[in-house]
Write a structure and sequence with these properties.
Elements (H helix, E strand, L loop, with lengths): L2 E4 L2 E4 L6 E5 L16 H13 L4 E4 L9 H11 L2 E3 L1 E3 L8 H7 L3 H10 L11 E5 L7 H17 L3 E4 L6 H11 L7 E4 L7 H10 L2 E5 L12 H13 L3 E4 L9 H17 L1 H15 L5
Parallel strand pairs: 3-4, 4-5, 6-7, 7-8, 8-9, 9-10, 10-11
Antiparallel strand pairs: 1-2
């Protein structure tokens, strides 16, 4: 039986229900001073509204060192009845001080394995996925180091690897490294932010390779993606890749629509174009496979 590792323990993958495949209840970064998501009441309100709209599971991609708040995630999961998946992993180097990177860079794989199998810090709350990040149109040295550690941890734990693609770029470079050189099965890789670079050739190549494609987050002012999303998803589905698609809210700073918008605003629009059956598949069946621990 396939299982997904949530902050309250492992659950059968079939119980995930409607899933926000990429979001943040808590996140802090020095790149976003004064825009921290660190308010438990705000997180509780968002999660409750998501549940009232039919949502069941939220996958938080906040990695090591960026304010994951694992104990608070447990409290929220218990209070709302939601499944919440936490992440280990490491973001781009710019999100960390040199001192923080210096403490962990030589032991990343062990850190990831520990957080996946024993718990984050002293909380005992186990992560359920590994989050790493590429850079703009390339993989810099930091990205390659963290992805090698992620692959090593994946092979030891079966945890899926979720990848932040900077503005949606370098997807094929990521797959060349993770699935080529490092022998991670493509179906264990989730590529995030593909909506930010609506390149249909790349999308189809990534889907053909077998990875999951995450279209996560409503458009920012400079991302003309919301209005193109239905046609992008329809093109992939018509090519036979409807089973590779995921949707997420990716709430990063206060004031963004976030996870309730995913179901209140985006889902009805997509149902008009794609049909309810495909949208249900994207929100329920696909995440159950994407976030399962490999056996």
């Amino acid at each position: 039986m396939s299982v997904v590792r949530t902050v309250l323990g492992d659950v059968p993958a079939g119980e995930l229900g409607v899933t926000d495949a990429h979001d943040h209840l808590f996140i802090r970064s020095p790149l976003l001073p004064g825009q921290e998501l660190d308010d438990p009441q705000r997180a509780r309100t968002a999660l409750r509204e998501f549940r009232e709209l039919g949502g069941r599971t939220v996958v938080q991609w906040t990695p090591y060192g960026l304010g994951r708040e694992p104990a608070a995630l447990v409290t929220l999961a218990r209070e709302t009845g939601a499944h919440v998946v936490a992440a280990t992993g490491l973001h781009q180097a710019v999100h960390y001080s040199a001192a923080t990177l210096g403490r962990v860079v030589d032991t990343l794989a062990e850190l990831f394995v520990t957080e996946l199998t024993e718990g984050i810090g002293s909380t005992g709350v186990r992560a359920g996925l590994i989050k790493v990040a590429g850079s703009f149109h390339e993989l810099d040295a930091h990205a390659r180091t963290t992805m090698r550690a992620a692959a090593a941890a994946h092979h030891r734990t079966g945890a899926p690897i979720a990848v932040h693609l900077e503005l949606g770029t370098a997807a094929l470079d990521v797959l060349d490294l993770l699935c080529g050189e490092l022998a991670v099965e493509p179906g264990q890789v989730i590529l995030g932010h593909l909506n930010r670079s609506p390149d249909s050739v790349v999308h189809h190549e990534v889907a053909r390779a077998g990875a999951f494609l995450a279209f996560d987050g409503p458009s920012r002012a400079n991302h003309a993606t919301d209005w193109r999303l239905p046609e992008v998803l329809a093109s992939l589905a018509e090519a036979g890749y409807g089973d590779r698609l995921l949707l997420g809210g990716d709430t990063v700073v206060p004031g963004t629509p976030g996870m309730p918008y995913l179901l209140r605003g985006l889902r009805p629009r997509l149902e008009l174009t794609l049909g309810k059956a495909l949208v249900e598949r994207i929100l329920i069946a696909n995440p159950a496979r994407a976030f399962s621990l490999a056996g």
